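yo, Salicylate hydroxylase is done. seq:
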Amino acid sequence: MPSPQIRIAIVGAGPAGLTLGVLLHKHGIPFTIFELRQQPTEEVVNSPRKKGFESLLGDCTEADRVCNMHGDLVYADEGELTNRPEIARPKLIKLLLSNLPASSVRWGHKLRSVNTSALLGPETTELDFGEHGKDTFDLVVGADGAWSRVRAFLTAEKPHYVGMHTITLDIRQIASKHPVLAQWIGPGSLQCLGNRHGICSQRSMEGSARIYMFLSVADKDFATTSGLGSQTAAQAKNRLLSDDSLFGLWGSNIKELVAAACEDESIHNPGQTIDIKPLYTLPARYTWEHHSCATLIGDAAHLMNPPAGQGVNLAMKDSLLLAQAIVKARTIIDQNPTLFRATLDALVTDFERNMAVAAKEVADMTMMINEIQFGSDDAATAMANVFKSCGESAR
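structure:
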């Protein structure tokens, strides 16, 4: 009796979904990835395979700096205490796509609904992609982010607002355009904290720096009620830098960084409204009732507040654990095809249990860091003490 193939659908082509796909492809296990976005350009998809992970590093280091709201440096570590690799997200996506067959990803597919019924066959899940039709699978993996439709199939739990908005801007070629600012923010990450807000920078691709502004505001509709959501970066600049409830009281070097980011966005994206959005999270200890034909990874499974910076790392770990479970299931099924559903179900159950333990640990750490970063007016000192404590422990 030939072994049945495990029909696998991965919903979402972010780091979690693509990593899972690469790992399954490596073991010869077929799958299909469905992604809402349209197909990227050929340049993005067809990255030369000879360029491995190591060749894509170097845009950012592990250096950490912390400043108070006046721009005074209170902590600086140039990365001596850790050698973890850093890779820009676009390069990571490009690398993963270059290691997948083009036919394995279906772009422009918006998932309308997830369904099961006796009419579909025993323990089979149907995905409805509207104009692209319907298809059935033995296992559906929701890697579809914060507002996952696969999660909605498994549980009624929804993300809740964390009391914070974020604004994201970029400064391209910062070293050549703004050498003094580039030297100040350093080669890695900078956190300017105070007044329960934050301005953070992260060095990125092609000499750029990504600037994040974190605003502690109770109103989840702040982007609309404040008017910032309908303004361009040039229009928002004066409001951000003059309003004392925002960054009006902050130091001159921090204001210069924000102004440079707003001006650069205005040059490269003229007329485009500023990228401001509310932040949401899932409860750290929530779980969903196990379903034999569907599971979750990444933000779909455990959405967390981003400033602690562990989301992608945890998502890719999810993918590794689930891939190991599927590979093990395939081996057992090859030996005894009659155990197909029982084996797959048991191993996915174990994966979910292990993922929940790992996610809870990271979620607890994230909540602690977020409280330190934004829980007081003098958060910079508190955050500096955390870094110093970690450095002493490493030594």
